[in-house]
């Protein structure tokens, strides 16, 4: 299953890439960061998020590594160069959509 | 009920392909357990259903949906749905509190969903998740240097919220 449909990343995949744009992170911290950057509107469940992480790994958009050692179960995920490019492209695409929505008065201009 | 939710989530992981489960299962359980600290039993069941669906999708994507996996998935879904429907009558809708205040250093806001702080700002700047610290009956917003900038305390008995005032420039 692709993470990159013709019209962009899935919302969850995009949110994961945006969350990782600030640096490598582990699963729980990624969920917390997504909740934070979406003001609580998006709070992925564990299963869905690991399915999305698996797809992103398969597509080479993120890579994984062992953590610094505080918890052996934790893996850290980081953006690859391809992933960073995909995140930027997705941000541009969403920005264009937001501008179009603003022009059509679907959202206030201040939301941009 | 919480222990049932935990058991159900672990069972739900059987929906994922074996190789994936062996590699990521312990990590997923660790994430589930961390989230369980701030969650209702109902949302634990919802998490388990979500894991079932995600695992089944992964098997479908990899052409690994065997007969036994389908049986396990169906059985687990039936069990989880039974409990979810039973608890749905007891479950409260997600509560959302938007708290906004100002002190000498400026405006700060905190968004709390189901008793969990999910977002905060100081002077209209969103704080990253690692600068929002939730404790038993308080929330701390950390400054860039890691010091506590604002500490909010809940008094559940009186339904009151109090906080310490920052000095100007303490963000």
Principal-axis shape of chain B equals: elongated
Q: Calculate Rg of chain A over CA atoms.
A: 15 Å
Sequence of strands across the biggest β-sheet of chain A = 1-3-2
Number of continuous helical runs of chain A: 4
Structural class of chain A: mainly alpha
Q: How many extended strands of chain B?
A: 8
User: What percent of residues of chain B adopt helix (DSSP H or I)?
Assistant: 40-55%
User: How many individual β-strands of chain A?
Assistant: 3
User: Given this structure, which CATH class of chain A is correct?
Assistant: Mainly Alpha
Any descriptors?
heterodimer; A: 112 residues; mainly alpha; Arc Repressor Mutant, subunit A; B: 171 residues; alpha+beta; 2 domains; 4-stranded antiparallel sheet; 8 strands; 27% strand; elongated
Mind explaining what this structure looks like?
The complex is a heterodimer of chains A (112) and B (171). With 112 residues, chain A is mainly alpha-helical. Chain A has a single domain, classed as Arc Repressor Mutant, subunit A (Orthogonal Bundle), CATH 1.10.10. Chain A is 51% helix and 11% strand. Chain A has four helices and three strands, in the order H-E-H-H-E-E-H. Chain A has a three-stranded antiparallel beta sheet. In chain A, strand 2 and strand 3 (75-79) form a beta hairpin. Chain A starts with 10 loop residues before the first helix and ends in a 9-residue tail after the last helix. The mean pLDDT of chain A is 88. Chain B is α+β, with helices and mostly antiparallel strands and 171 residues long. The model of chain B has no long low-confidence stretch (mean pLDDT 76). Chain B has two domains: 2-88, no CATH class; 96-163, no CATH class. In chain B, a hairpin with a 2-residue loop joins strand 2 and strand 3 (116-122). Chain B has helices spanning 2-12, 18-36, 41-61, 67-88, and strands at residues 96-103, 106-113, 116-122, 125-126, 132-135, 138-142, 148-155, 160-163. Chain A binds chain B through residues 1, 22, 27-29, 31-33, 35-37, 39-40, 43, 45-51, 54, 71, 73-75, and chain B through 9, 12, 20, 24, 26-32, 34-35, 46-47, 50-55, 57-58, 61, 96, 111, 113, 118-120, 126-130, 132.
